[in-house]
Amino acid sequence: MKTYNYSELSSAEIQKLVQRNVDPANEIRTIVEDVIANVQQHGDSALLDYALKFDKVELNKLYLEKAELEEIAQAISADQKAALETAYSNIYKFHQTQLKTEDKVETMPGVTCWRELRPIEKVGLYIPGGSAVLPSTFLMLGIPARIAGCHEIVVCSPPQKNGKVNAFIASVALMLNIDKIYLAGGSQAVAAMAYGTASIPKVDKIFGPGNQFVTKAKTIIQSTTTTAIDMPAGPSEVLVIADDSAVPAYIAADLLAQAEHGIDSQAVLVCTSAEIAEKAIVEVEKQLPVLPRAEIAKLAIDNSYVVITDSLAEAMSFSNQYAPEHLILATESWEQITGSIINAGSVFLGNLTPESAGDYASGTNHTLPTSSYARAYSGVSVDSFVKKITFQHITREGIGNIGHTVEVLAELEGLHAHRNAVSVRINN
């Protein structure tokens, strides 16, 4: 891991350092645009071709129904099922509290305003299934969708070599009372949910993380169709802030936990001394070779780096510029610096709070903004699956109280029909 001294970096160098997953030559965009156009034009036929090309499987149909899911799910052990159920319970408890009824507000006598929640009718969940199958992502998306009350939940996940889905994905589908999974992955799955095909319904909003191709597809369809997206959630990343109270073995484990996601993942260590950095790097080199996904993790680590700062305040300053998906405060002094966090997707406090806990079972959502999008986006929540519609009601007293204000404002904007809509009521 390349090491930088924060005090020696210019503003331009910092900005270059925090950039990731860029596509300066539009190579990814060009490929994805072709895929989207092909799916839009040829529908199921294109999806079957892509399954053969990318997933190396020849499909007879593009979905699995409930009976097939039940059969597949029987392969999981009792211990594995119990772990999924514990995760389900914790995630449900945390997200259920987000569904709140707001109070009505009387802004002036006789004028009452309020908001009510309505679920998004049709949502699409993309569950990655490339180098790692992620039933945890299915839980993170499916649970808040169910809590919100979405009427139709369309699930797409890449087919395995046997033309089916992983047993854990099937098990989660049954837990969420989802009767069908569509066998499509990558940018082609995003296109299918955005435009609809003979097999896959068009949805109103697409959720789920993915690689750079999936992320690019989501950003393209958001600007070219009526389908919205949750956020640009691309390759995973972590930034660890550590001081002398940190445990190097824990730091290394957290860095590698992100690195094993994929070769385009990034793990950044920001620490207050070169000594901590050296010890952590030694631990990375010790832990890396024994990982089953060592080759993937090594390439991600090669794409990662260390920044040495003079203080935790400097470390936090760099972190806010990086705007990490996951931020770990590997310090016993975390309470002193949490107030300085401006940009982060999800934060893990202290030496005993690994990011893996949030990935699986603590209760918070792991579908988070990456690539600095934490500057403007929040992670997925129940709010992501609902619309908040405003209401207002005006009484006879209220139109008398607010009427003149509206008349004056409408007239100064030159919108006399607006003024008249109030005047006719007052005059009556």
TrEMBL record:
Gene3D superfamilies: 1.20.5.1300, Nitrogenase molybdenum iron protein domain (3.40.50.1980)
Cofactor note: Binds 1 zinc ion per subunit.
Lineage of the species this protein comes from: Bacteria, Pseudomonadati, Bacteroidota, Sphingobacteriia, Sphingobacteriales
Catalytic activity of the protein: L-histidinol + 2 NAD(+) + H2O = L-histidine + 2 NADH + 3 H(+)
Required cofactor names: Zn(2+)
Protein known as: Histidinol dehydrogenase
Family statement drawn from the similarity comment of this UniProt entry: Belongs to the histidinol dehydrogenase family.
Gene Ontology MF: a single term: histidinol dehydrogenase activity
Organism: Mucilaginibacter celer
Function: Catalyzes the sequential NAD-dependent oxidations of L-histidinol to L-histidinaldehyde and then to L-histidine.
EC code(s) of this entry: 1.1.1.23
InterPro entries (alphabetical): Ald_DH/histidinol_DH, Histidinol_DH_CS, Histidinol_DH_monofunct, Hstdl_DH
Positions contributing to Zn(2+) binding: Q258, H261, D359, H418
Pathway as given in its UniProt record: Amino-acid biosynthesis; L-histidine biosynthesis; L-histidine from 5-phospho-alpha-D-ribose 1-diphosphate: step 9/9
GO cellular component, one term: cytosol
Active site (catalytic residues): E325 (proton acceptor), H326 (proton acceptor)
GO annotation (BP), single: L-histidine biosynthetic process
